Amino acid sequence: MNDENSALSRNLPCVKCKETLSTVKSFDGVVVDRCPQCSGTWYDGGELEQVLGDAFDYQALMRTVSLRLSEYVCPCCKMSMRALVFKFQHGELVIDHCSICRGFWLDSGELASVKDLVETIRDGVAPVRIGFSSARPIGVRAGSVNLDEKPLLKDSALDHYRSVDYETGSEIGHIGVSAYLFSALTSLPIEVFNPVKEPAYAMYLLIMLNIAIYIHTGSLVPDKFMPFMREFGAVPLDVLAGKLHTLVTSMFLHSNFWHLFANMYVLFVFGDNVYDLFNDHGKTRGPLTFVVFYLIVGVLSGLIHIILAAGHPVTSTVPVVGASGAVSGIMAAYWRAFPKTRIYQIIFWYPFKLPIWVYLGIWILFNIALGLFAGSGARVSWQAHLGGFAAGYFLLPHFMAFRLERLQAR
Fold first, then answer.
1. N or C, fewer C-beta in 10 Å, the chain?
2. What is the structure's pLDDT at 154?
3. Smallest Cα–Cα separation from 390: which of 337, 326, 341?
4. Does residue 167 share a domain with residue 75?
5. Cα separation of 311 and 61, whole Å?
6. Can you give the pTM of this predicted structure?
7. In the chain, which residues have pLDDT < 50?
8. Are residue 229 and residue 114 in the same domain, yes or no?
9. Are residues 102 and 251 part of one domain?
10. Where are the beta strands (DSSP E) in 37-193?
């Protein structure tokens, strides 16, 4: 409503402090109602469009935001308003809106944020829920969330992960074209949102050690390659005869580049956050605990393979190599510790954000199907995969410096 005398005669109450609103002139001479106490502003239907100009697109705005019930009542219609929620990685912008008269209530300083919001929507780069885009966070100014600030890192991993907003991060998470092509061509997952507190240095050393050993095995001449694999790989009959050290050494051997790359990549994706949890043991004990956990899970996965494959005439004499069992245990630990995370997976060239339980549930079913159809003679050790997964899932709470329930309590 733009007529100043008409606005004065209405005596509209402030939706927050109930003070009578005063009329002021906004941009381009538009008359709006403002609270002299809290400086919040009421925009009648059409007034916000006049203030923001061509950048404002009501329908586009309504398609972008999420809706929830507002705590405020429309000063004109006396009906409950709706809160239009636009989520960012480190906060959210809430605009109170009456769907009956199409009026808007903006708190002090929010107009600049709304202006940035509508301009971003107009440019077609607003964050999306699924898929990859050139989405960028909006620079929110006074009176709202500062998106340029990095999240506050707490003193412990427990504090850090309890402060992470997984719902918001997953909602606005996006991937670029290069990450999309990588996932589409390799079928490997990409983590949507789970920021780490500190770098996982011991995990990086494990990855480099695996790479160094692979380079060494790749340099061996053909007639020395298989003897080397048989000497340090876990041959079921040899392990049962007492060659137990190969349960550890086999974890650092890989048969080909893809075998190495897939294992190290998945360890890199899931391992850094699990590593973070162990850091609460202390700067020295934390990395050591992670390495011990990794090795124990890998050994247990190898034992499961040995037990189930020892009776097969072929696999009982074939060395099993690779970090797949240990990495499967890290995946299970990640799932148990961070059940609210999501994973990008390209399916028929479309990027989906899958909840971690869906992604790993499909992975488990695939390994079970492999076991049912190929049995203990399968070239891929589904036994080690499932054994390592079970070990990681059930052992995680016994290696953490705090109770798992504290991590997931809100």
1. C
2. 45
3. 326
4. no
5. 64
6. 0.66
7. 1-9, 126-154
8. no
9. no
10. 41-43, 66-73, 80-88, 91-97, 104-106, 190-191
Q: What is the pLDDT of residue 328?
A: 96
How confident is the model at residue 138, as a pLDDT?
30
pLDDT at 91: 60
Has residue 329 been placed in a domain? yes
Rounded Cα distance, 231 and 246, in Å: 8
The range of the structural domain enclosing residue 9 comes to 4-122
Judge whether 73 lies within some domain: yes
Could you tell me the CATH number of the domain that includes residue 273? Answer: 1.20.1540.10
> Hey, how many other C-beta atoms are within 10 angstroms of the C-beta on 289?
21
Residue 225 burial class via C-beta count within 10 angstroms: exposed 0-12, middle 13-18, buried 19 and up: middle
Query: What Cα–Cα distance (Å) separates residue 386 from each residue in 31, 52, 119, 235, 326?
Result: 67, 57, 50, 19, 10
Number of domains in the chain: 2
> CB neighbours (10 Å) of residue 361?
13
Span 337-366, pLDDT tens digits: 999 899 999 888 888 889 999 999 999 999
CB 297 within 8 A of CB 289: no
